[in-house]
Amino acid sequence: MEYKKKIGEETLLLRSPEESDAEEMLNCLKTVCGETRFLLKDPDEITFTVDDEKNFINAVNSSKIGVMLVGFLNGEYVGHCSLSELGPKRFSHRVDLGISLYQKFTGLGIGTFMIEKLIEIAKEKGLEQITLEVSAENKRAVAIYKKFGFEIYGTFPKNMKYKDGTYSDVIWMMKEL
Questions:
Q1: What's the maximum distance between 2 C-alpha atoms anywhere in the chain?
Q2: What is the pTM of this model?
Q3: For each of the chain's 177 residues, which pLDDT tens digit applies?
Q4: What's the CA gap between 44 and 50, in Å, rounded?
Q5: Angle at CA 118, nearest 5°, toward 117 and 122?
Q6: CB contact at 8 A, 87 and 105
Q7: Which of 45, 121, 128, 155 has the greatest count of CB atoms below 10 A from its CB?
Q8: Alpha carbon distances (Å) from 82 to 42, 66, 111, 165, 166
Q9: How many Å is the Cα radius of gyration of the chain?
Q10: Which residues pair with 170 in a beta bridge?
């Protein structure tokens, strides 16, 4: 799976991950978790090994429902996005969307392109729904998801508690395909 788009004068490449991407994917996740409060973990909670990540890549690549794409802007790793299976057969009609993007690459349209492609892939796979959870503080992400037709179906008050004792509500969103 491979998709390209021009971002200014540069070329964005989204493709399926390979085992050789494992270390970069882990580094990105650890960095992004430290750059923003919007993800589920702090950097010190990312305890996967490179081998664990390679196994994860192989599992995702062999999945009939789930998918992951890694992104490169002129060869530089920008982040990754995914549609994750929810497990039981009763949930096989839907997936959960996730995006991890280095902060220096936000605001360029990369996340938007990732969402476009993930929706396209979900439709090709015959899925019926895409769900996601997003920090209520992440107003830019909420606006982008709404632009793509995701609707808010609920809010989990104080869903995340940070080290400093503050909380963040989390919004549950879903898009019918």
A1: 45
A2: 0.91
A3: 899 999 989 999 999 999 999 999 999 989 988 898 888 788 888 888 999 999 999 999 998 889 999 999 999 999 999 999 887 888 889 999 999 999 999 999 999 999 999 999 999 999 999 999 999 999 999 999 999 999 999 999 999 999 899 999 999 999 999
A4: 15
A5: 120
A6: no
A7: 121
A8: 20, 7, 12, 30, 28
A9: 16
A10: 135, 156
Q: Which two tokens stand for residue 158?
A: 């104080």
Reading the block at residue 77, the tokens are 């790793």
98 forms beta bridges with 82
Taken in order 125, 129, 130, 132, the sign of the CA dihedral is: negative
> Which two three-digit tokens encode residue 52?
């664990």
83 and 61 in contact (C-beta within 8 Å)? no
Specify which residues 152 forms β-bridges with. Answer: 173
Please provide the size of the chain in residues.
177
CB neighbour class for 34 (10 Å; exposed up to 12, middle 13-18, buried from 19)? middle
Give Cα separations from 153 to 65, 76, 91 (angstroms): 23, 36, 17
Q: Which strands, in side-by-side order, build the sheet including 94-101?
A: 2-7, 10-15, 67-73, 76-85, 94-101, 129-135, 167-176, 151-161
* Token pair in block for residue 144: 């982008």
Beta strands 129-135; 94-101: pairing state? parallel
